[in-house]
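A.,

Following up on our hallway conversation. Structure tokens first:
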């Protein structure tokens, strides 16, 4: 009887240990931001027409760009972490200006967060 309790306790602890790291990973991959642009925006290897788009983190180093309903994939881009010293109430987006070309999306930091994504060009 004591062996059964020990095995059961070991199994429960194993499940808890496996669940904790997965929870941490799921937080970053669940981030979705919907943005509307009134002019073309450049991303690596694609230019988005004016419109509304969903930006969704899919892993620690990638982000997908989809239509506003999340049904059509426009791009999957490589990213690195971008940090800010304080949280903003609204999503923060920065751009790089380029001569004779649409502005290039540089960073995206979701509202109420200090960590976002910087696109790799």
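Then the amino acids I'd put at each of the 121 positions:
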């Amino acid at each position: 009887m004591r062996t059964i309790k020990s095995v059961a306790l070991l199994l429960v602890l194993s499940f808890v240990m496996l669940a904790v790291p997965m929870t941490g990973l799921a937080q970053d991959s669940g981030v979705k931001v919907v943005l509307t642009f009134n002019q073309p925006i450049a991303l690596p290897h694609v230019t988005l027409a004016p419109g509304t788009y969903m930006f969704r983190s899919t892993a620690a180093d990638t982000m997908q760009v989809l239509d506003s309903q999340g049904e059509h994939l426009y791009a999957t881009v490589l990213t690195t972490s971008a940090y800010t010293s304080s949280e903003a109430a609204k999503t923060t987006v920065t751009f790089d200006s380029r001569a004779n070309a649409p502005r290039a999306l540089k960073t995206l930091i979701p509202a109420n967060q200090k960590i976002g994504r910087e696109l790799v060009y």
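The radius of gyration is 20 Å. Curious whether your intuition agrees with the design.

B.
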